[in-house]
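[audit] Reproducing an earlier prediction to check determinism. Same input, same settings, fresh worker. If the tokens differ from the archived copy the diff job will pick it up downstream; this log only records the rerun itself.
[audit] input (123 residues):
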Amino acid sequence: VQLQASGGGLVQAGGSLRLSCAASGDIISINDMAWHRQAPGKQRELVASITSRGVTTYEDSVKGRFTISRDDAENAVYLQMNNLKPEDTGVYYCNAEVAFSRTPGVIRGRPFWGEGTLVTVSS
């Protein structure tokens, strides 16, 4: 199973970006999906998450500006980021709890991470 994130880039403060993350491989189902970020010199933090039923949670600083969504037919999760601020700068990683099968009749589950996509917000 692999997660491929895309959509990062350089944007001015107040601008918008949309991050995408698609999972591929021997996927049976995907439970929770999330976006995390790691700012320079800081620990990785949870930005937003979405359950398989569509229940969302957000880190306080992004509430009202970011929207997480998912497309189960595409095994994908998205993060729409509006009104970006310089403090949103960092590497954004997608994460998914995946049920997969590599052996007939055997289903396993564990979290997978994408490689990260860089978001830079200039002031």
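[audit] rerun output stored. Observation attached for the diff report: The CA atoms of residues 41 and 111 lie 25 Å apart.
[audit] end
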